[in-house]
Amino acid sequence: MAKTRLTNSDTHQPPSEQDRRREALFGVLAMVPAGKVTSYGQLAEFAGLGRAARWVGRTLSQLPQGSTLPWHRVIAASGRLSLPAGSPSGDEQRMRLREEGIQIQHDRVDIRQHGWRPTEHSG
DNA sequence: TCAAAGGCGCCAA
DNA sequence: CTTGGCGCCTTTG
Q1: Which residue lies nearest C8, CA-to-C1' measured?
Q2: Could you give the 3-state DSSP secondary structure of residue A65?
Q3: What pLDDT, in 10s, does the model give residues A48-87?
Q4: Which nucleotide lies nearest residue A51, CA to C1'?
Q5: pLDDT on residue A12
Q6: Nucleotides of B under 7 A from a protein CB
Q7: C9 C1': nearest CA residue
Q8: Is the CB of A55 under 7 A from strand C?
Q9: What tens digit of pLDDT does each residue of A88-106 get?
């Protein structure tokens, strides 16, 4: 496995707390398989970040364009897509999810069917 | 230290 | 279904 990423690349300082949280978040997000979706709160909790759902949302909004992370698989806990249709990100999100076989009706995804269950298979 | 703001979450009306 | 309101955690000024 390649090193996930180097946030402070050109320095050799130890990772800051912010870096550590980002790494935790990215690590968990990378586990979400295609065809499944998760929520901001679920990511935060599973990454050991407590109830930092909002922070997750903001962090994801700041992802670089070239990121390979499946940010599009992150939706609201209610099953609704937080990113509005018509916006670049929202449109991209809907396109990617549909390509993964996820049905989106009325801006929402069936969590029962497509919700990611981390502990169910991998471990 | 305080205040404001985020791709949120949950509950009540 | 929609609003309001409050809580949550973190960053920024």
Answers
A1: A51
A2: coil
A3: 999 999 999 999 999 988 899 999 999 999 999 999 998 8
A4: C8
A5: 58
A6: 6-10
A7: A52
A8: yes
A9: 899 999 999 999 999 999 9
Closest residue (CA to C1') to nucleotide C7 in the complex: A51
Sign of torsion over alpha carbons A59, A27, A77, A68: positive
Radius of gyration of chain A (CA): 15
What is the amino acid identity at position A33? Answer: P
pTM of the model: 0.88
- The predicted pLDDT at position A56 comes to 95
Q: Nearest nucleotide, C1' to the C-alpha of A60?
A: B7
Spatial separation of the C-alpha atoms in residues A95 and A118, rounded to whole Å: 24
- Structural domains of chain A, ranges and CATH numbers in brackets: 17-117 (1.10.10.10)
Which ranges of chain A would DSSP assign to H, the alpha helix? 17-29, 40-46, 53-61, 88-99, 111-114
CA A114 → C1' B9, Å? 19
User: Which tokens sit at A104?
Assistant: 């989106």
